[in-house]
């Protein structure tokens, strides 16, 4: 909903040139077309770009400073359910300095300090400067709906910005690629929140905060919120489903809070139809809908038209363009870092259509992560059940049979059971991390030159998933992998996609499915009920009987012809940005392209990743980075 930026001198309170801060916010003007502001004092500069969703008046303008001039704040995002917090603060004698979320954050900080975070509900990333204590405090919301990047500059100051492009507008930031982030992207399809393609840039993780004091070293960020799967609800299934339906209603109402009418992103699925039903029940005004492909004659197209007719929505069709040739450059411009989520192109198209008529739109993104509906979740749960049936010694024997050459091994291969037998004996965390990877380690390694292998220093992208699964605050195998997904994929992929795509077109995209209250409630469900789709069933309770209960599909951009994609990747070898790093083997990339062009193998996903990586490297560092 906004873009924030700032510069904080770490050693001495030197003046900050306001033009430097303004350059950072101007680089993110798409995040705030409704207003901008820059404030500087000795040792600090804060900047803000405003997209008005709640608090459209000038009284919501930022940066905001308290009357005493001690505290100043900039905030990206919105606090939801503001009334109780506002009443509590005003009842305690706090005169709010404005009408927006920033004024509430400022007053909450004055009253409770860092402990105020537990009282803030919504999606936010904010910075507070304390002139008296010479401190800068950065914080990010529980799930990571709003981004925040920071880095040390060559003059010894610390800079922060909502997006990477805001930091890059500062000429004192050293630009060089981090090979570990390249490994992460090729493995996961996105650069996760504990990595950045620009070496030295940090992303404040979801549910974390950072307190920096002038004259002291910059500490590590501190976790202020975490998800816990260890508690189990004692209620019966019927009661839990009723509670889930009520909580979903409340989450949708919270997500709809805005001064302008919100819309809905729909795809013809029962999930999005139920979302529209919930929104229609909560609003006296008609709900606008946006969809891709609503004009076609497919089942999805008919379902979209039926939803629009049933709820009398003001419908906007966002046709996905047939020509994908422009996508790599657009994705690099919007996401800065390479981003290969298959849903990215469709989300951009929906945001572009929504941005013409609304400032807020809701979707159901993240639901499959929350209810363990991904194929890898089902596979993991199935293997966990098999492991539980076998003593440890038998599991080891199963692995030997699956990998061996004995008669039982040959029989297992004949019936296709050898992979399952090996998986039963494998470490669950390692196996799940491998299932998450979009490009296997061996294939990634085949692309790397010796310089890349050396630069990685043993770094493996899958290690973060393995560590997250093992360290999860969880009791059951499915709990552990979902905990890892909600810590890594939810902020790094799902919420990053919604934030960047929406902000690129001046519209706030929210998903009630990743509302912290819904996430906490779902984590307390027995794993069997969660994986059986209780939350989805509760959502569908709001679906009118005359609407079909059908699954949706992410609209995909037109697939590149094999020759066109191969030629585009072959050009990377001839006009190097990617290979100029010295980290990739040009011959290996050319071989992949030739294999794909001839039809000998389908390397489309990996070639697409290489194309996106090339565009991001050019965009961030220039040719020959």
UniProtKB/TrEMBL annotation:
GO terms for biological process: asparagine biosynthetic process. Keywords: ATP-binding, Glutamine amidotransferase, Nucleotide-binding. Pathway: Amino-acid biosynthesis; L-asparagine biosynthesis; L-asparagine from L-aspartate (L-Gln route): step 1/1. Residues 2-215 form the Glutamine amidotransferase type-2 domain. Its EC number is 6.3.5.4. It is an enzyme of class 6 (ligase). It catalyses: L-aspartate + L-glutamine + ATP + H2O = L-asparagine + L-glutamate + AMP + diphosphate + H(+). InterPro entries: Asn_synth_AEB (IPR006426), Asn_synthase (IPR001962), ASN_synthetase/amidase (IPR051786), AsnB_N (IPR033738), GATase_2_dom (IPR017932), Ntn_hydrolases_N (IPR029055), Rossmann-like_a/b/a_fold (IPR014729). GO terms for molecular function: asparagine synthase (glutamine-hydrolyzing) activity; ATP binding. GO terms for cellular component: cytosol. Belongs to the asparagine synthetase family. This is asparagine synthase (glutamine-hydrolyzing). It comes from Sphingomonas sanxanigenens DSM 19645 = NX02.
